[in-house]
Amino acid sequence: xxxxxxxxxxxxxxxxxxxxxxxxxxxxxxxxxxxxxxxxxxxxxxxxxxxxxxxxxxxxxxxxxxxxxxxxxxxxxxxxxxxxxxxxxxxxxxxxxxxxxxxxxxxxxxxxxxxxxxxxxxxxxxxxxxxxxxxxxxxxxxxxxxxxxxxxxxxxxxxxxxxxxxxxxxxxxxxxxxxxxxxxxxxxxxxxxxxxxxxxxxxxxxxxxxxxxxxxxxxxxxxxxxxxxxxxxxxxxxxxxxxxxxxxxxxxxxxxxxxxxxxxxxxxxxxxxxxxxxxxxxxxxxxxxxxxxxxxxxxxxxxxxxxxxxxxxxxxxxxxxxxxxxxxxxxxxxxxxxxxxxxxxxxxxxxxxxxxxxxxxxxxxxxxxxxxxxxxxxxxxxxxxxxxxxxxxxxxxxxxxxxxxxxxxxxxxxxxxxxxxxxxxxxxxxxxxxxxxxxxxxxxxxxxxxxxxxxxxxxxxxxxxxxxxxxxxxxxxxxxxxxxxxxxxxxxxxxxxxxxxxxxxxxxxxxxxxxxxxxxxx
Amino acid sequence: xxxxxxxxxxxxxxxxxxxxxxxxxxxxxxxxxxxxxxxxxxxxxxxxxxxxxxxxxxxxxxxxxxxxxxxxxxxxxxxxxxxxxxxxxxxxxxxxxxxxxxxxxxxxxxxxxxxxxxxxxxxxxxxxxxxxxxxxxxxxxxxxxxxxxxxxxxxxxxxxxxxxxxxxxxxxxxxxxxxxxx
Lengths: 522, 182
Fold this sequence. Notes:
- The complex is a heterodimer of chains A (522) and B (182).
- Chain A is built from 13 helices and 17 strands.
- Chain A has helices spanning 19-30, 53-60, 74-77, 105-108, 110-114, 129-143, 158-170, 215-221, 269-279, 353-359, 367-374, 419-438, 499-518, and strands at residues 12-15, 35-38, 67-69, 175-176, 225-228, 232-238, 244-250, 256-260, 263-266, 304-311, 327-328, 344-348, 379-386, 395-403, 409-414, 443-447, 482-484.
- In chain A, the strands form four sheets. Chain A has a six-stranded antiparallel beta sheet, covered by helices on one side. Chain A has a five-stranded parallel beta sheet with strand order 5-2-1-9-17, covered by helices on one side.
- In chain A, a hairpin with a 5-residue loop joins strand 6 and strand 7 (244-250).
- The longest helix of chain A has 20 residues, at 419-438.
- Chain A is globular, with a radius of gyration of 22 Å.
- The model of chain A has no long low-confidence stretch (mean pLDDT 98).
- Chain B is mainly alpha-helical.
- Chain B has one domain (8-154).
- Chain B is built from eight helices and two strands.
- The longest helix of chain B is centred in the middle third of the chain and has 18 residues, at 84-101.
- The chains are: A alpha/beta (522), B mainly alpha (182).
- At the A-B interface, helix 7, strand 4, helix 10 and helix 11 of A face helix 7 and helix 8 of B.
């Protein structure tokens, strides 16, 4: 395996190996750029993934101490687990469901499209769909997204059949088995989906795209990648000229190392990325790196979410097959007549018995709860995911007293729903229930949001440096050789699952970084 | 030192109780998995009376009428394994139930037993049992069999050839929405 010297100041250091960091590292390596990829978690393989919800959760999740505040229910039910994301090579691409949707043109212009929404810190993205289309195309090809590039859709499972029957009876027109980064036929040296039903636990067949077994080995094969797993970055350092110059990280044994860098790209997901910038404060940057706007950690978004589980007379056995097996997109547009701006998607979802118990109604007990659990084989499930409003007060901040194992402040995640989020969720619950009622449901369970899987916006891109942290390429406004390379860049959340856009931005960012390096501009 | 360790283990061994049960005839799938109809749980720290009471309390918190005591006993086992602090909390909690019952809580009729448990909803005793149960009770193969969830699927090749799309009580979606499996 390639190893670069710790005092080699010509390397690009990428922090985090998920959708953003893993893709960026590979794209740079393919262009001949030397990359040190620092990943806090350990390296698994499809063979070591576990078809067991709790065991896989412990194996893959980011479980370091975090705190929560605000009126969201997660702060009560899971006070130290604001997010259900991963600490492992491949990041949350090990855990994601695979839904790969492009952001819509109107959504890139959220401030223009929705107008001035009280309490929302809305802003248009500095880029539009036309800027990203060629890169979306490359991302879809790379990830093998079904219903693109002549790749057929996946076959629908039982859970999808229920959704489809209800959707069509209700008059919805746009319902199918989705655009999924899961092989419907062998592609890219990976087999096709075996319908295991454990997408969230790491795909043991490798049919689902993850940087763990696509981007990262491809990067390693170039000889330009030095992947260091078990390496948690503690701070980013800079020189007298204000440019970043090195990172300090702790290895799995807690020993600290310094790695010099020409460019640093942060892709730690939207909680750790701002935390790292804030923890890297110095006398030159007393409010943290790249924070002259004061927006680092602010505008934390998590998507409007919720779930509906319908119970039917006949069995469904929703656990069989892909977790996210189909989608209804009819509600994804902006139609303020519904009582809110923005839109939402309806996507099938299934949980096993262990996680159904944990998430159905956290804190509940008694006959209502057990009656729901007893109806498990007769349940169909869907997840509702839509755009939430950016609010400056929803923020990742450093805890004033709680420290992690390295003595650094842990992150606190504060979140309150915006009235628009609440109105959208109520509408989505009503429509989700209507879908299942149309398919003959005996009753429906409205399930509250899980710990956040889509964490976005805490280092957002903006045209004007005073409104955000980075520019349209993820390059921070304040420091030319410091980049944001994950979902933290999102100016607004849009309705779509974010991974495809994160990968798309990483491909585009790699072109920009390589170009800037060749011009000696960074 | 090793002698001390041995003594401590010996002490713990004899300090814990034992609870027993017999699988109900109606246990169905569970009976197929079990090597024998009788079961016994050896407790490390908890006494038998507390163990039996905690098992009963768990039944009131998550009442599945046809789920066998053997599965609820797994919750007691996991609580016992947490050690002295948890066991003390539970022992004290059971004593509170007995005090409220004016005698042995276990001897009360079911409605009264339930009422006294429900009255403790906000206590650490209740919440400890609820919090442990919501994981332990639903995260074992006996429970999986009861609820009709098979768990692990990779070793069986997933569901591609084992019914992932066998639902036949609704119309089949068209191939444009749901292509055939390759």
